[in-house]
Design brief:
about 0% strand; Growth Hormone, Chain: A; about 500 residues; 20 helices; mainly alpha
């Protein structure tokens, strides 16, 4: 792909409008997860609570393993239920809610690689989005209807199919922008992509409010907690599905990804099949990472794992920390986390510019140090004012890290492996999101307080810093150098 063919680049600068159009793929994915996480837990809570099998299993396990009650209490669960033990409903909800991360670890690297090898008239990445997003949207819209009309097993089948279908096109969707953007501009481009994802998340967060307002105005009937699953939930999911399809249509008709059929034609020029295989083998060997690049990749993925262990613990357990340590209500804790999200969004564009000016590695390390410092400052002072500072500066630091990590990983792999290395990126981050709630649950159980969250996360950040220090590759090559190399090769 030549410089002039890059959709998100214009005259050596990032083409902002084209990058926004490319971001509709990530927006489509983000709105689904913004609705999925809070609403599916409520659906599962009702279905599992009504399950006689779950009730009987809970009673048997409480009798056999009393320590389960203690561990569940550290997760914020009320253990004062009938029989003096625990209900396994939250446990099963937790397991089911990790399916998206598990599927991501298993399937996203595979489909990232497949997108690198895809040959179609509409490019390498877009076919996965164009065909995957509508299937996901249909399954997404069906989930609440199936939960109302059918049984728990039928609902689980629908949820599993949805999560699987999402894992087929998420890596290609994320890889689309880097594939259409020069390496030197990817941090800036990723900032816009993260903003688009934020827009999708916000739409998902307010979807329930919008639907309830419309439903109440049309029917004249108020929606409350007792009937919301049967009245508003189906329309919330339908709204999310519609936005997903709109995002797919924008990518299909407004984003121009060069046809990859030419690569197939080039391969067909080999008359001798044996010679073609030999040439392909030599190309694969030449395309392998050097020893130094492999080392950088391993340390970077390790850094991502520990980073997401720290941030996932915060997002998962902050509300419980706010209730136990700060004495805040759920709504107050939501306001605090919203401040964190707003500061992250505001920092997106500056984070991309910092990555370009200072270098990605330095910007990531700055973010980690700031994150770690404000958390440890609260442990030392115990001041409520410091908590607000931690949310403000932590939100900013979070975006310094988020915007620059993916471009750094992709730079190690090169332009021809964008899908593959996007899969590697998500393997590291999803693995952390599977492991961290369990690991911190054990830490909380033995520490006896959610204040340990502000020690656990900085320790994870320190481990992440130690890994990233050893990363020696992944910085963008300035565009003028790339142009010079292309000119020399042309001569």
């Amino acid at each position: 792909m030549s410089k002039n063919e890059l959709f998100c680049e214009k005259n050596g600068k990032l083409h902002t409008w084209h990058t926004i159009l490319t971001g509709f793929a990530f927006l489509a994915s983000s709105i689904a997860w913004a609705i999925y996480d809070p609403y599916i837990t409520k659906i599962l809570n009702r279905l599992l609570t009504e399950s006689e099998w779950i009730t009987n299993l809970s009673a048997k396990l409480n009798e056999a393993f009393p320590i389960l009650a203690k561990f569940a209490e550290t997760q914020g669960q009320d253990v004062n239920v009938a029989g003096g033990g625990i209900t396994l409903v939250p446990l099963f909800i937790g397991i089911i809610m990790t399916f998206d991360n598990i599927f991501g670890v298993i399937f996203q690297p595979t489909f990232g690689k497949l997108s690198d090898r895809c040959r179609s008239k509409i490019g390498k990445r877009r076919p996965f989005i164009v065909y995957g997003a509508p299937v996901s949207a249909i399954l997404f819209a069906l989930i609440p209807w199936v939960a109302i009309k059918a049984s728990l097993p039928a609902t689980m089948i629908c949820i599993i199919l949805f999560v699987f279908s999402m894992s087929l096109w998420r890596a290609p969707a994320v890889a689309l922008m880097p594939a259409l953007t020069p390496p030197a501009l990817r941090s800036e481009g990723n900032a816009i992509i993260n903003l688009m994802g934020g827009v999708g998340s916000v739409i998902g967060m307010v979807a329930g409010t919008i639907v309830v307002a419309i439903y109440t105005a049309v029917t004249g009937t108020a929606v409350d907690a007792s009937n919301e699953q049967f009245t508003s939930f189906p329309y919330v999911f339908l709204l999310g599905a519609i936005v997903m399809v709109i995002g797919m249509l924008v990518v299909r008709f407004k984003v121009h990804e060069p046809s990859s059929l030419g690569e197939t034609a080039a391969k067909n020029q080999y008359a001798d099949e044996k010679a073609a295989k030999k040439a392909e083998k030599a190309a694969r060997k030449a395309d392998k990472l050097s020893k130094g690049e492999r080392k950088s990749l391993i340390f970077m993925l390790g850094g991502l794992f520990f980073l997401f262990c720290g941030t996932n613990a915060i997002t998962t357990f902050f509300a419980l920390f706010a209730a136990e340590v700060l004495g805040k209500t759920t709504s107050e804790a939501t306001i605090m986390t919203t401040l964190f999200a707003v500061c992250s969004a505001v920092a997106a564009i500056p984070a991309g510019k910092m990555g370009k000016k200072l270098g990605r590695k330095k910007t990531i390390l700055i973010g980690l140090v700031v994150f770690m410092a404000v958390f440890l400052l609260y442990v030392v002072t115990g001041s409520m004012a410091v908590i607000w500072l931690a949310l403000i500066f932590g939100g900013f630091a979070n975006m310094l890290i988020t915007v620059n990590t993916l471009p750094l990983v992709l730079e190690i792999g090169g332009i021809d492996k964008v899908g593959t290395f996007t899969g590697y990126y998500y393997t590291a981050t999803f693995s952390a999101q599977i492991a961290s709630p369990i690991v911190y649950g054990v830490v909380r159980m033995f520490s006896g307080t959610y204040l340990s969250l502000f020690v656990y996360s900085p320790i994870m950040f320190i481990l992440s810093i130690l890994c990233i220090i050893f990363v020696k590759h992944g910085e963008a090559i300035p565009q003028e150098i790339v142009d010079k190399i292309e000119e020399e090769n042309a001569d």
